[in-house]
Specification:
It contains nine helices and seven strands; from the N terminus they run ααββαααβααβαβββα. By secondary structure, it is α+β, with helices and mostly antiparallel strands.
Amino acid sequence: MQIQRTRQPRLHRNGFSKIELLVVLFVIALLMLAVIMPMGPSSHGPARKLVCLNNMRNLGLATVNFSSGNNSELPLLVDPYLQISTEDEPNANASYDDLTWCTTLLPFLDNVGFRQRWDATANLAADTNTNSDAIKQLAALNAIRFPVFSCPSDESATDQGALSYVVNVGYVTANYNKTGVGYNASTGIGHHPAGDGGLDGDPSTTDDIPVKYASGVFWRPFTSRMSLDFISEGDGLAQTLMLSENLQAGNWADQDTGSLGFGIDMQGVYPSGSTSLKLPAGFDLKNKTTSTDSRIGSNLKAKKGQAWRPSSNHPGGSVNVIFCDGSGKSLAPEIDPAIYARLLTPAGQRYGQAEIEKGAF
């Protein structure tokens, strides 16, 4: 018996046509674009803001660690340190070894060796007999850039001696920055509770000096020194600002108040002799007496050291802040002016300010 086998036709496999290949490549390109897009410029803002907040957390932790070893006391805004100038013993070089709050914190930021070199050089530069070589060497040290002091969104972050962060100097008045560089020990003028005329800006009244002390956290030398204990017993560590950021901050070694701190211009806001921190009705952070604006992000074209409010280049103009308990968050420029003003005071409730409700900021 003969069996016939039917031969199956061979199937020919054709490759992709050019059109199909183009479609596949187009789909792959779209998928790759979808992956790459989040890595583009639009994502840099949030990432840089997070780096900024981490830097500030490190500064806040360093401040708390300093306080722990100093009976709860906080660093001075500027510490005259060893060499001072008085009427009896004038020393034109005395301010060379003054410590800004930044210099004070360097050993707590893993920069013990640098601080030792700085101390040795500054001591020589501050001698009554002018030491030109030491002064030149100190200037070179002051130009060193520490990444922890600068925000990556700050256009001046890579400058020599860059500083993006500022500390809470509270309610300031007309003479807050009159000394320029350093604290004038002979005249007493400068940013401390009495030196700029107290709360009302009037040097002839003194009852308002303790009230002024309760309006801010970082001061130049005074009869008493601000502490975390004082703040904890007052408005509370979690409701008192320690640090913020400012595009108009100076350098970390600058000694003028406007380069190192942020505050609110209260010149003319409180009447002469006032002993209350209660905010007037309609308070909006815009000072009608001096024409200054203390709102977050105002006056962005100001020169370095000339605008003491917080500011940043973060999306929406929001600013990172650190509170005195070490916690951090972001504040929007649209924050209620009265709430923002109360966040600066370590003991405002003792002098008439209303308590801030939870979730209000």
